[in-house]
Write a structure and sequence with these properties.
Elements: H1 3-14, H2 19-31, H3 48-59, E1 68-75, H4 76-79, H5 87-92, E2 102-108, E3 114-121, E4 129-133, E5 136-137, E6 143-144, E7 148-149, E8 152-153, H6 154-172, E9 176-178, H7 184-189, E10 201-208, E11 224-228, H8 236-247, E12 252-259, H9 260-263, H10 269-275, E13 280-288, H11 292-316, E14 326-330, E15 336-338, E16 347-350, E17 354-365, E18 373-379, E19 385-387, E20 392-393
Parallel strand pairs: 4-9, 4-10, 10-13, 11-12
Antiparallel strand pairs: 1-3, 2-3, 5-6, 7-8, 11-13, 14-17, 14-20, 15-16, 17-18, 18-19
The structure holds zinc ion.
Length: 395
């Protein structure tokens, strides 16, 4: 690439913006595969800062938003002054932001000068996972419901949670596929083969059952556990998943992570097939379908459970290396704190004006009317999530 041309484009797009704004434009050019025609015509000359931003991005691999691809930006001037996005204009205006892009952040100054960034999460390393629901349709057409208890059927719950894990993975930018809807036990038993070598991790979701059901509920959960094959070299991922589940109210069942062969001498059919391909596999026994307290916990926390599973996988596989919590400033007094990262979720209060630490980011709906999507941040306090479009970065 001709760095001088790039510097002149950055100059044309962002001469009045702070250095971060110039970096943002340079990253956007790179993330668009250097399609220069998508940007303003080069200025006649460039400032030292514009060249510095181009060198940082093109020679040193610096990114304004390391975890994301910046695919478009829009000016404060036309799309919302003072850094408050005009969602209506952005989504339904003459140059609408495509529905698969999300608001990622902004750079600018009070008044009209600034850019809103839009784009997508970058894929995390080369990580790809498969999630699989336990039980279901057998090869002979019959149906295996799994365990039944307290008015619930395991095969229904495993499908529900599988879907929630998939949604959460999409929201968090973790590549995740859902296995075909069938009983994989029956599938493999009948000679089926399924190539999973493209995945780093296969998570098979189940619910446990006890020989002594407690469908009245004694106020005590039985809890969550995982089966891994004896051939696995470690269980840091499963420890991370379980500790996250315990943190939102579950408890350790048995030894937490249990080597399958302690319970099933010849292993588990599905697990054996996955392990034979050298791919890591875990059976998550989410909680006990035979325990009313467990089912109440599941019903009240299912989305959090999906998030906790994903967070454990991210931690266990080190997918977030390089990302660190950061602070933002909130200058409006009535910014909602929501229980999950979408404007549809119930509000549990307001931040007030001040500075807040963001522990995690997620993409969700930010505007009810237009359905615009953007980044949300989970607060250190544990109170919930805030829409980052209404915050200012603190550097
Ligand atoms: Zn099961």
């Amino acid at each position: 690439m001709n760095l001088e041309i790039l510097a002149k484009i950055v100059e044309a797009e962002a001469s009045v913006l702070p250095f971060a704004g110039k970096l943002g434009v340079a990253q956007c050019i790179l993330d668009n595969g250097n399609n220069l025609s998508a940007f303003a015509a080069p200025a006649d000359d460039y400032s030292g800062e514009s060249m510095q931003a181009v060198r940082a991005v093109y020679e040193q691999g610096v990114r304004r938003l390391p975890g994301y691809q910046i695919l478009m930006f829009r000016s404060f001037n036309k799309y919302g002054p003072d850094g408050i996005p005009d969602w209506e204009k952005l989504v339904t205006g003459p140059a609408p932001i495509p529905g698969d892009m999300a608001y990622l952040g902004k750079d600018g100054m009070p008044g009209s000068w600034g850019h809103y960034y839009f784009g997508r999460r970058r894929e995390m390393k080369n990580f790809r996972m498969l999630v699989m629901a336990g039980h279901g349709r057998n090869m002979d057409g019959s149906y295996d419901p799994g365990a039944v208890g307290c008015g619930y059927e395991e095969a229904t719950l495993t499908r529900e949670l599988t879907q929630l894990v998939k949604e959460e993975a999409d929201r968090q930018g973790v590549s995740c596929d859902v296995a075909p809807d069938r009983n994989h036990y029956s599938f493999f038993k009948n000679g089926g083969s399924y190539d999973v070598t493209g995945y780093k991790y296969v998570l098979e979701i189940h619910f446990n059952a006890s020989v002594n059901p407690d469908c009245a509920g004694n106020g005590q959960m039985t809890g969550s556990m995982v089966y891994i094959d004896q051939s696995e070299t470690g269980h840091s991922v499963e420890d991370a998943i379980l500790s996250n589940l315990y943190a939102i109210g579950s408890k350790q069942a048995w030894d937490g992570v249990v080597i399958t062969q302690r319970q099933y001498q010849t292993g588990l059919m599905v697990q054996n097939h996955i392990r034979a391909q050298g791919v890591s596999h875990a059976v998550l026994e989410t909680c006990f379908i035979s325990d009313r307290d467990d089912m109440n916990w599941y019903q009240a926390h299912k989305r959090e459970i999906a998030r906790a599973i994903l967070a454990g996988i991210r931690k266990g596989f080190g997918l977030d290396e390089g990302w660190e919590p950061y602070m933002v400033h909130v200058s409006i007094p009535d910014l909602n704190i929501r229980i999950s990262p979408t404007v549809d979720a119930p509000s549990v209060g307001h931040t007030g004006v001040g500075s807040f630490t963001i522990m995690e980011e997620a993409i969700g709906k930010v505007n009810m009317k237009t359905g615009a999507k953007g980044l949300w941040g989970r607060l250190l306090s544990g109170a919930g999530w805030i829409c980052l479009a209404y915050t200012e970065p603190i550097n």
